[in-house]
Design goal:
CATH topology of the domain at 7-256 and 481-490 in chain A: Amidase signature (AS) enzymes
Strand content of chain B: 15-25%
Structural class of chain A: alpha/beta
CATH architecture of the domain at 7-256 and 481-490 in chain A: Alpha-Beta Complex
Shape of chain B: elongated
Radius of gyration of chain A: 21 Å
Strand content of chain A: 5-15%
Order of helices and strands of chain A: HHEHEHEHEHEEHEHEHHHHEHHEEH
Largest interface: A-B, 42 and 31 residues
Radius of gyration of chain B: 30 Å
Low-confidence stretches of chain A: none
Number of domains of chain B: 3
Distance between the termini of chain B: 59 Å
Strand order of the largest sheet of chain A: 1-3-2-4-6-5-10-11-9-7-8
Oligomer: heterodimer
Number of helices of chain A: 15
Number of helices of chain B: 16
Helix content of chain A: 25-40%
Distance between the termini of chain A: 21 Å
Number of strands of chain A: 11
Largest sheet of chain B: 8 strands, mixed
Helix content of chain B: 40-55%
CATH superfamily of the domain at 7-256 and 481-490 in chain A: Amidase signature (AS) domain
Mean pLDDT of chain B: 92
């Protein structure tokens, strides 16, 4: 993206004293103010951000920087617990919750000197793919369709995170991805969204949705920024038992766009007649481009792809139904008084949770119930194993897999399907990656006939983030996608 | 009485023991586990289930569970899984308890108990690790229940027996035995009053030859007395129901310690569907062969082995040995005292006088006012004839009161026995010489007067004369 800061470009400007952290932070706070209509932020940390920026400038003066990126303002999905800053998960039930602890990921951001501008809107408890389930209302996509003034969904659940980067209301942002919640909104907003391998980034202090699938990652304007941000947030955390001990690499330093001799797989199961022509075209063009740049394109099979979504919608709600049991009105968050304990539970949770969250709690409770457990949960786990082995087999043949990120580009908020299952189809290309625990990245490739961004997804084997970023960087460098949305909200 | 009550009936009893792991910190957090601390003073973010908190397994607790499994002669499962047991309650912050369901850390084992018909093997079904819940305080406020989360997350071992016990006595013996093993291992302090060890007892009755009856579970029994009483009550209740032509409902019951009765808590129909599933926040637990081997090698001598050794080495009766080894502190105490002393005498003094003092003062062996060294000193004085058994009892009492050593008290009180034959002979002569009439009567057949002479001689010695020597000498002189 031209004319706006990236982590990389701003670091250089700060280093050369072309701008101070306080100046750039103020600039972004103004952008947030004038971009209020986008509804990206649940909480803006105006005062704290400016104080932190001043401190960063002082560190710069005394040459005591926390990192090269000290002083750069970012946004944080409202799912990360932040000490002293309201953390709501975009739910009424946590609308008054102020943690007295800092998530590992946001702590790592602080430790690198990044400035938090505030907490970004998302689907309630990260459940949704349009951002419509937020208690604080829908986020609006900065992009609009040619010849239409209708507002579009930014995708979800990290809709605020994606829209804020796309609309330049922060330099980069943190999201979380359970079934596509980083990649799908990145695809809808023309941004780069990276979901790391399961275990690459600590889950400690992130409001849990589905523990075996959740993974935090960056949404950025460029692949280079994604590498930089992943360097900052990744690594083993002994507070998260599922955090990997495999050593992390210096992703940015080792970023190498050379893909000569690599094999890129095109899974035939992702092909569909329903795929928009422009998306199919981008996918094909990208494959050609990679071939031109020295890679070999290989047709591969991922036979269980079509079972991924049903399995996901059993496993994720099952875990969620249990993870969300703690929001009971007893210790923190919303409490609606009742005649007795059960009455208090029922009133609190009826009032505190939105429809989609309730739907998933109900599904999850059902599939775990005795008598149904084997038929649903166990079966879904078996499918999950099959999907994992699909990818294990595939990565014996190829280095990376290229697919579309989403089955469509962004659609109108008013046109969101009322059938939840239709909505769940948004995640059809992203969900298998979570089930298999793999890293995936969505990057913008072109705009469609309505001038809306088309995202493509790359997938590599577990903990091969470096390779993933290298291929993505190769594409980015070649196409030099530089479209930005027209800032209609300023008018 | 119990036997009469159940005449013609079989009792089938299975027990779940909840034993708190003897660990300074909780199963999945680093909070301390001290008993009796200020409410909610030992609660981490994890124990309070704050958003985004994740459990991290406490390796020490795993070690204790495996050690316990070895002590229960059980199979150690190299792969086990932590599951979530989902239910809502105010003192369960997560809305689920992390426990082990299908794949526990310890599998089948057994313990041997002493019954009136001899040794009996009681099967252990499994041992698994789980978190304790918090505590609800219903009596602090008329309108609110208060919750103390200090216990929330503390590691418990649930030890499930097979339904192998057939009387309240066997049930109590089983719990005693498991408790004793855990205490020997140091994996649970076994303190039942503080709730470190409690039992849920499953009871059913049936007519011999008939199929098993419907069982009821009596929850949370925290003393041997209550375990016994609850089983007796419950068996009677079930027998009475069946004899009246009614049927027993499968249910969970609570024991009222005041009335000695059990009452229904919830029936099978109301039983929770706990929706168990593997906790996705924790990886499956995998144990290393070498690590298990290392623990096996570190297991101390356990009560059954010590009992065997005491019987062989010190010729103790099985009964005495059993009493002594049932408590680790007692068997250690015994071994301290018995070194180079007469085992029979030591057994008598430990299980007799010392136990009665502890009982009277309501003390456990660890807090005995008489150290093993002190008791040894007292026994030495008996063995070398300085004092009689009767005198020794007085000395022991004095030792308890004053804390002084046996020899010191014997000296102070001048209790030392006179065992010098010459000295005693002159005493005896003096008694016989001053009672010529009685000597004559004795010699004419009045045997009973023998005691009179002994008594007089003892009186003259102020009780210090060795009674055996007095006896022998009088007998000898009078038969001359």
């Amino acid at each position: 993206m031209k004319d706006s800061y990236t982590l990389k470009s701003l670091a250089v400007l700060l280093e050369n004293n072309k701008i101070s952290s306080k100046e750039v932070t103020s600039e972004y706070l103004k952008k947030i103010e004038s971009g209020k209509e986008l509804n990206c932020y649940n909480t803006v940390s105006q005062e704290k951000a400016l104080i932190d920026a001043e401190k960063s400038d002082e560190r710069r003066k005394s040459q005591n920087l926390k990192s090269k990126y000290d002083g750069i303002p970012i946004g944080i999905k409202d799912l990360f617990c932040t000490k002293g800053v309201t953390t709501t998960a975009s739910s009424k039930i946590l609308s008054n919750f102020i943690p007295n602890y800092e998530s590992t990921v946001t702590q790592k951001c602080c430790d690198s000197g990044l400035i938090s501008l505030g907490k970004l809107n998302c689907d309630e408890f990260a459940m949704g793919s349009t951002n419509k389930t937020s208690f604080f209302g829908s986020v609006k996509n900065p992009w609009k369709s040619l010849n239409s003034d209708n507002e579009l969904v930014p995708g979800g659940s990290s809709g605020g995170s994606a829209a804020a980067v796309s609309g330049d209301l922060c330099v980069a942002s943190l999201g979380t991805d359970t079934g596509g919640s980083i990649r799908q909104p990145a695809s809808f907003t023309g941004t780069v969204g990276l979901k790391p391998s399961y275990g690459r980034v600590s889950r400690w202090g992130i409001v849990a949705f589905a523990s075996s699938l959740d993974q935090a990652g960056p949404i950025t304007k460029t692949v280079e920024d994604a590498a930089i941000f992943l360097d900052i947030i990744s690594g083993h955390d002994e507070k998260d038992s599922t955090s990997s001990i495999s050593p992390k690499e210096n992703y940015y330093e080792n970023l190498n766009p050379d893909i000569k001799g690599m094999k890129i797989g095109i899974p035939k199961e992702f092909r569909s007649d329903k795929l928009p022509v422009s998306t199919q075209k981008s996918w094909d063009e990208c494959a050609d481009l990679l071939k031109t740049n020295g890679a070999e394109i290989v047709d591969i099979n991922l036979p269980h792809t079509m079972s991924a979504l049903p399995a996901y919608y059993i496993i994720a709600p099952a875990e969620a139904s249990s993870n969300l049991a703690r929001y009971d009105g007893v210790r923190y968050g919303l409490r609606v008084k009742g005649n007795d304990l059960i009455d208090m539970y029922e009133k609190t949770r009826s009032e505190g949770f939105g429809d989609e969250v309730k739907r998933r709690i109900l599904i999850g409770t059902y599939v775990l119930s005795s008598g149904y457990y084997d038929a649903y949960y166990i079966k879904a786990q078996k499918i999950r194993s099959l999907i994992k082995s699909d990818y294990v087999e595939a990565f014996k043949k190829v280095d990376a897999i290229l697919t579309p990120s989403t089955p469509s580009t962004a659609f109108e908020i008013a046109n969101e399907p009322s059938d939840p299952v239709q909505n769940y189809l948004n995640d059809i290309f992203t969900v298998p990656v979570n089930l298999a625990g793999l890293p995936g990245i969505s990057l913008p490739f072109a705009n469609d006939e309505n001038n809306l961004p088309i995202g493509l997804q790359l997938i590599t084997n577990s903990f091969e983030e470096q390779k993933l970023l290298n291929v993505a960087r190769n594409i980015e460098k070649t196409i030099n996608y530089s479209e930005t949305p027209e800032k209609w909200w300023l008018k | 009485m119990v036997a009469q009550m159940i005449e013609g009936w079989n009792l089938v009893i299975g027990i779940e023991i909840h034993a708190q792991v003897n660990s300074k910190s909780k199963l999945f957090s680093s909070s301390p586990t001290d008993f009796g601390s200020k409410p909610n003073s030992q609660v981490s973010l994890i124990d309070a289930a704050m958003p985004g908190m994740l459990p991290v397994i406490n390796k020490f607790c795993i070690e204790q569970a495996v050690k316990s499994g070895i002590g229960l002669n059980a199979k150690i499962n190299k792969n086990s899984i932590f599951d979530r047991k989902n239910y809502f309650y105010q003192d369960l912050p997560q809305g689920y308890q992390i426990s082990q369901y299908k794949d526990p850390i310890v599998g089948e084992g057994f313990v041997e108990i002493e019954t009136k018909n001899g040794q009996k093997k009681i099967g252990v079904e499994r041992l698994h690790l789980e978190q304790d819940a918090g505590k609800s305080l219903h009596d602090q406020d008329p309108n609110f229940t208060f919750v103390d989360l200090n216990r929330s997350g503390i590691a418990l071992m649930e030890i499930v027996s097979k339904p192998d016990m057939n009387s309240p006595e066997e049930a109590v013996e089983y719990v005693r035995k498991v408790r004793s093993i855990l205490r020997y291992l140091g994996t649970c302090d076994g303190n039942m009053e503080q709730g470190s060890l409690r039992a849920d007892v499953n009871v059913s009755v049936n007519k011999p030859g008939n199929e098993l009856g419907t069982r009821c579970e009596i929850k949370n029994l925290n003393s041997f007395k209550f375990i016994h009483a609850a089983i007796v009550y419950e068996a009677r209740r079930q027998i009475k129901l069946i004899e009246q032509g009614e049927s027993v409902n499968q249910e969970t019951r609570l024991f009222n310690t005041q009335s000695g009765e059990t009452r229904s808590m919830r029936s099978k129909e109301d039983a929770h569907d706990y929706r168990y599933f593997p906790d996705p926040d924790l990886l499956p637990l995998t144990l290393d062969d070498d690590w298990i081997k290392g623990l096996q090698d570190s297991i101390p001598e356990l009560p059954d082995q010590i009992k065997e050794r005491f019987i062989n080495e010190y010729s103790l009766s099985s009964y005495d040995a059993n009493i002594i080894v049932s408590d680790k502190a007692t068997s250690e105490y015994f071994e301290d005292v018995v070194k180079n002393r007469n085992p029979k005498l030591v057994t008598t003094w430990v299980t007799g006088e010392l136990f009665s003092i502890l009982n009277k003062k309501n003390l456990i062996m660890e807090d005995s006012p008489i150290t093993s060294k002190q008791l040894g000193e007292l026994i030495d004085n008996i063995e070398n004839g300085k004092i009689s058994n009767r005198q020794a009892k007085e000395v022991l009492e004095e030792m308890c009161e004053s804390g002084k050593g046996a020899s010191e008290i014997i000296d102070e009180k001048g209790l030392s026995q006179i065992s010098d034959e010459n000295e005693i002979e002159s005493l005896v002569d003096s008694v016989l010489n001053s009672n010529p009439e009685n000597v004559k009567k004795y010699k004419n057949g009045k045997d009973k007067l023998f005691g009179f002479f002994v008594g007089e001689a003892m009186k003259l010695s102020k009780g210090k004369a060795n009674p055996k020597i007095v006896n022998d000498l009088i007998k000898k002189k009078l038969s001359q």
